[in-house]
Amino acid sequence: MKALGISRSKVFSPNSEGKDMLILHAVGEELQQKGVEVSFLPENELLSSSLEKVDVVFSMGRDLRTVECLERFEKEGGLVVNPSAGIRNSERFQLSKLFLQEGIPTPTTVLLQCIPEQADSAWPYPVWIKRGDGCAQVKADVQLLQNACEANIALADFRKRGIDCAVVSEHLKGDLVKFYGVQDTPFFSWNYPDVSKTKFGLEEKNGPVQGYSFHVDKMKEICDEAAKILQIPVYGGDCIVSADGSFKIIDFNDWPSFSSCREDAARAIVSFIFKAYERN
Fold first, then answer.
1. How far apart are CA 157 and CA 140, in angstroms?
2. Which secondary-structure segment (H or E) carries 278?
3. Mean pLDDT of the chain
4. Does domain 175-257 have CATH number 3.40.1400.10?
5. Handedness of CA 208, 139, 101, 155 (dihedral sign)
6. Residues in contact with 153: Cβ distance below 8 Å, sequence separation at least 6, in sequence order
7. SS3 sequence, 96-136?
8. Is the pTM of this model over 0.85?
9. Is CATH 3.40.50 the classification given to domain 108-170?
């Protein structure tokens, strides 16, 4: 087997470029130990010709050109983890739409197919507004707003920057829990954000951790189901755990850095790759 690892462009790894590279290379090293021939390529250097003699691609890429190139490779029978369809589904608007359709527990959410001139005073303030056309690339792509006045300023900023859709979500009270998983494997890890900070430090908005108890097995079950819906088998994200132990997913990402559990994650990802390759 020959495998190619594609690293994520800097623009999609704000403050996380080094950590993203570490998990990608950890997966590569684990594959090499199992006899796989592994090479690496930055996504901005990826060409269709790069995939001509490759059996498997494990990719953290998010650029549209990367996705299109991987789609062609998949149509020719190649295996990509995470698949191109999953990368498209991980864009905030599409992700939120699928979660609402499939009943994944999430906050009260409003989908904005276009950016309105005025915010709705009926939104459940305080709310988070997030760009819908991709992942957050700068801090202003995800903002906590206390009222319609603040929302109008955020919407104007989105319009000015050419962002054409957005997601508005209720701000939930409770413990922020970060989770990491690999679909169809036993691997699942979680921690509070003091162990692994988010790339923009937004975890501070949730206040001190209270240590509310919750069922980890149930969280894994729901997160694995979300991964199947989105077609993102290698995943991570954030949820809010309430005082009663219930939880809702507020963020779900394709292939995070796994910085708090890198070695275990790499082994699980390689296990998934081999199983998927056999099926493929």
1. 8
2. helix 262-279
3. 92
4. no
5. positive
6. none
7. HHHHHHHCCCCCCEEEECCCCCCCCCCCCCCEEEEECCCCC
8. yes
9. no
